[in-house]
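Question (not urgent): is this output format expected?
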Amino acid sequence: MPVFKILITDGLDSNGIAILKKSAEVVEMTGITPDDLLKEIAEYDALIVRGRTKVTAAVFDAAKNLKVVGRAGVGVDNIDLAAAKAHGVTVVNSPMATTTAVAELTMALMLSAVREIARADSSLKAGKWLKKEFEGFELSGKTLGVIGFGRIGAAVAKRAAAFDMTILGYDPMVPAEEITKRGGTPVSMDELLSQSDMITMHLPLTEETKSLINADAFAKMKQGVYLICAARGGVIDETALLDALNSGKVAGAALDVFVTEPPGLTDLVAHPKLVCTPHVGAQTVEAQHRAAHDIAEEIVAALNGSPLRWKVA
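Got this back:
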């Protein structure tokens, strides 16, 4: 068996590293800078990243031996897919690993937003008893609009149904009958925006989805809607969201992702009606274990020319 060299730049669970070490030399450079990555990448056959490392066209230009890039997780917007194709480099991910973790976080964010859990917690820890200020809303009986009805969107719909919510689904990539099978009522984007009490987003960041939720979209929503996003930063126009929160059009929002990460203490992050977390959707012990296992097996398969389950490009 040929000896391959694999570089890991954003960390990987030990079970995945153990799989890789059976077939290759593995080097971990967690936190490597973009400049150092350009200097180091030439000697490696495979690169494994998460969301932090940007695999740019310059990286592919410098990567003389690179055969495969693996994303331990779902989103690949930090990888230049066109450059990968131009250089004949395969890109794979592990899309099944984080479904449960992200779906559960979405429900946690939804509940936190409608019950103002974060603000109630911080006020009590500050020595205040503001019980009368925290009259929230029940999920039961509300209509949830799910934008993006793939694996994670469907998993959220299943959990929301257990809260007695009515589920609307919009996804141009999923047939209407499949949305129905997955527990949603298929609707147009405009119907979803106008009929939903709460909206959650589960779609990748692409040219088509960038700023999908913008000022025009907010104008079509119900007064006092809630917006949840644990998908990708950039699918929501953050300036438009801040305006909608300030006007009361959006009663509350919860974000796990931002256009710039970390975002810093912006007016949006500091807004009292926003619950925010630092892109922790996939940060569970179980999800990280699955992601490492799946991406390691996929990388080994790619290096050995075996069939791939999750080839992105």
